[in-house]
Amino acid sequence: MSTATGDAKRVTTHTLLEMKADGVPIAMLTAYDYSLARLVDGAGIDVILVGDSASNVMAGHETTLPITLDQMIYHASAVVRGCQRALVVVDLPFGTYQGNSKGALNSAIRIMKESGAHAVKLEGGREVIGSIERILTAGIPVMGHLGLTPQSIYKFGTYVVRAKEEAEAQRLREDAMLLEEAGCFALVLEKIPAKLAEEVAKSVSIPVIGIGAGHGVDGQVLVLHDMLGINKEFNPRFLRRYADLHEVISDAVSGYVRDVRSKDFPSAKEQY
Fold first, then answer.
1. pLDDT digits (tens, 9 = 90+) for 98-138
2. Contact at 8 Å (CB) between 209 and 217?
3. SS3 annotation, 229-242
4. pTM of the prediction?
5. Rounded CA gap, 211 and 189, in Å?
6. How many other C-beta atoms lie within 10 A of the C-beta of residue 231?
7. Among 44, 31, 24, 26, which residue's Cα sits nearest to residue 84?
8. Residue 174: helix, strand or coil by DSSP?
9. What is the reported pLDDT for 2?
């Protein structure tokens, strides 16, 4: 399977299963708008997550909780229009699936119909199995998410590494198996010990994508604005910055302001 730029063959849930079987690591990033989704897709990314992290990086909220289903559909629709190759997965936002499997199904259907996305993702293990199973009855692919689950931040009270104690680690192992048995096509593990993440990845047949979970999993995901250096305030150990766009953009805007003030812009060649 080629991952070269310009290869427009669509990545599917089956593609990801093949990649795990072949030992090919899966590359996943977030995106929230058409322009950046088009760039990310063209660069050869396998999966684009329209994350509820849009609540933080796009809207400036402290947590992911405030973003609504309508807002997620808006972002997802823009991303889908920018993609030719990547599998587009959309987060079900807080309050749209917890404790109500019928509501979860309706939310997932809206995302799929109104945005054109290819799958949904939701956080949690055994407590959301009913919602996962209900969504799957409609033929909608579901990606699971265990470990640090940001929608539960007020329950945790902190963003520290999860499942360091054996009791929580065992619950995570069991939940991973439950999610696979329920029919999830893949699983995200966030901010858990690398040894545990590797163990889980080897124990299930579905792809396991890590964020702050070491290299023993089947792929990696990062928030685009973090890895591009647009967001400078977020500095977890697991983040590698591949660019410093904060400085690039700041310098560009400062240069524009300077040229406007001095009337250097527009020049004679830049007017009609």
1. 999 999 999 999 999 999 999 999 999 999 999 999 999 99
2. yes
3. CCCCCCCCCCCCCC
4. 0.94
5. 6
6. 18
7. 44
8. helix
9. 36
Query: Token digits for 122?
Result: 């939701």
pLDDT in tens, 75-90: 999 999 999 999 999 9
Q: What are the structural domains, with CATH classification, of the chain?
A: 13-241 (3.20.20.60), 244-272 (no CATH)
189 SS3 class:
strand
**HSE of 210 in the Cβ direction (CA atoms, 13 Å)?**
23
Distance, in Å, from the CA atom of 3 to the CA atom of 9, rounded to the nearest integer, reads 9
Q: Yes or no: say if 52 and 236 are a contact pair by the CB < 8 Å rule.
A: no
Question: Among positive and negative, which fits the CA dihedral 46, 138, 109, 105?
Answer: negative
Residues 117 and 111: beta-carbon distance below 8 Å: yes
Q: Packing angle between helix 129-136 and helix 101-115, nearest 10 degrees? A: 50
Catalytic residues: 190
What residues are paired with 220 via a beta bridge?
Answer: 27, 210
pLDDT value for 157: 66
Tokens read off for 136: 């799957």
pLDDT tens per residue across span 43-52: 999 999 999 9
**Element of type H or E holding 210:** strand 208-211
Amino acid residing at 45: I
CA distances from 133 to 6, 108, 142, 180, 196 (A): 36, 12, 9, 11, 26
Contact 210, 165 (CB under 8 A): no
The mean pLDDT of 224-246, rounded to a whole number, is 94
